[in-house]
Amino acid sequence: MRRLLMFVAVIGPVLAQVPGSVSPSPAARSEFHPDMPRPAAANSAPVRKDVSPEMRGDILMARKMYREAVDAYTEAPTSAVTMNKVGIAYHQMLELETARKYYERALKLDSKYPEAINNLGTIYYAKKSFRRAVNQYKKALKLSPESASIYSNLGTAYFARKNYDDAMKAYEKALSLDPEVFEHRNSAGVLLQERSVEERAKFHYYQARLYAKNGMSDRALVCLRKALEEGLKEEHDKIKDTPEFAKLKELPEFTEILALQQRAL
């Protein structure tokens, strides 16, 4: 059984064991979210010599020593898992074409490996081939239908294509599978960095609606405030009458946030 943990690190949508931009900034790279086993040891102590090459690679990845991690993984027996991990290491170094080749090698070894399928989708996302990214995520979800991370990636790709209704559906499914999916993974990292202020504002508005619909009022209010601070262009009355905000209207914080919008106008 494959274990999926978060490397709290996404360059776009979440990478199942890492997404990106063709030439993302250092800030974007720090948002990379690969879902892969993360070892407990992640300090600067020397890596023990009695651990397996794959575990040594995992430890080096946690330390962001990606080139050294590649060397370690290539000493391990060749498998879909290790090839996928080599791909992630190159992805973290922003060598996207090399990363793609290793994801494809992983899939030659195991064509039904959803993590590698997802990760290949993040390469397409990074290159702004959003339609192909959507197709990869859907393919991965057929094999791993309970993955909140992949649903979140699918939502991010739909959002990039301005297909907001389908994005909301995918994000809602992700949230139903894991209520913390957006908190511990920040799935929108790269998308937000790659879009205009208007798009960031729109994303946070949709996220506020999603949280409100699921009874997460505190998070909904935070996202709504962010949306307005980032220049959301929705009219005051339209925001106030948004169906998902029906219960929020009973809260004084909601009134305060809308009052800030009116003063800004």
Give structural notes.
The protein is mainly α. The protein has helices spanning 26-29, 53-62, 66-75, 80-92, 96-109, 114-126, 130-143, 148-160, 164-177, 181-185, 189-194, 197-213, 217-229, 236-240, 252-264. The longest helix has 17 residues, at 197-213. The radius of gyration is 20 Å and the shape is elongated. Mean pLDDT is 80; it is low at 1-11, 18-33, 35-42 and 185-198.
Low-confidence stretches: 1-11, 18-33, 35-42, 185-198
Proportion of residues in extended strands: under 5%
Q: Could you state the CATH homologous superfamily of the domain at 1-144?
A: Tetratricopeptide repeat domain
| Outline | elongated
The Rg value, from CA coordinates, equals 20 Å
Q: What would the CATH topology of the domain at 1-144 be?
A: Serine Threonine Protein Phosphatase 5, Tetratricopeptide repeat
- In the CATH hierarchy, the architecture of the domain at 1-144 is Alpha Horseshoe
Helix content: 55-70%
Order of helices and strands: HHHHHHHHHHHHHHH
Helical segment tally? 15
In round numbers, the mean pLDDT is 80
- Quick one: biggest sheet? none
CATH first level of the domain at 1-144: Mainly Alpha
Report the count of strand segments. 0
Classify the secondary structure makeup into a structural class.
mainly alpha
